[in-house]
């Protein structure tokens, strides 16, 4: 049975962990090194750091944070935000990251994914997709990939972009729903189902975790009560990992509690 991962995500800006709702209303959530230690000690499988400022100043600050955290934790972690070149990736890996995630830079220049995979290996390359539902002229449901921290609609279909990225060398796809981000209303199961069925690489679910049941649901199956019943259960596999943020940062639960609940639902997790 495949082991599913729980990955706490720390959005970092100017050396502090912050969190908002739908990429807005940012609030301070604590010290990154302190939170990283806590989540690692509590059983996190990996950690994800994202520089939401992505300026030259904030990038230098983030690399300093990465160095400090890498010296204290024992789990892999992925760092994203402001990585635009192989040199950026190299300095991030040198600071202690095991993987990097790219979003806007890959949308602007998709071949960057191939360059990164060729140089460092696909397992070190994570494509992050900030996806949002958009009305379609055909009346059907669509998601576009957004750039610039969720501010700019690229017009690129999020599912098609995930497929292309995997072909270019991305080793994992991180799918973050802008619509669900920070709301606690649950993951966008329909979006995740479409991407999971379309790509041969692991998919990480992000955006919307508000309850233990929602986290277990996305790891078990991306089926929902609203989904098209013409799809059989095997067409709705669960995500390989769940990214969690607000539900941890603001004390609603712990990594240990998430894993204990997941096990009670028959999910294989590392204890």
Q: What can be said about this structure in brief?
A:
The chain is an alpha/beta fold and 271 residues long.
Commentary on this structure:
The protein is an alpha/beta fold and 271 residues long. The protein contains 10 helices and 12 strands. It has an 8-stranded parallel beta barrel with strand order 1-4-5-6-7-10-11-12, surrounded by 8 helices. α6 runs parallel beside α7 and α8 packs across α10 (255-264). The longest helix has 15 residues, at 56-70. Mean pLDDT is 88; it is low at 228-232.
Poorly predicted residue ranges: 228-232
**So how many helices?**
10
Instruction: Give the fraction of residues assigned to helices.
Output: 25-40%
| Main sheet characteristics | 8 strands, parallel, barrel
Features:
single chain; 271 residues; alpha/beta; 8-stranded parallel barrel; 34% helix
List the helices and strands and how they pair.
Elements (H helix, E strand, L loop, with lengths): L4 E9 L2 E6 L2 E7 L1 H10 L5 E5 L4 H15 L6 E4 L5 H9 L4 E4 L1 H5 L2 H10 L4 E11 L5 E7 L4 E6 H11 L3 E6 L11 H10 L4 E4 L5 H9 L20 E4 L1 H4 L5 H10 L7
Parallel strand pairs: 1-4, 1-12, 4-5, 5-6, 6-7, 7-10, 10-11, 11-12
Antiparallel strand pairs: 1-2, 2-3, 7-8, 8-9
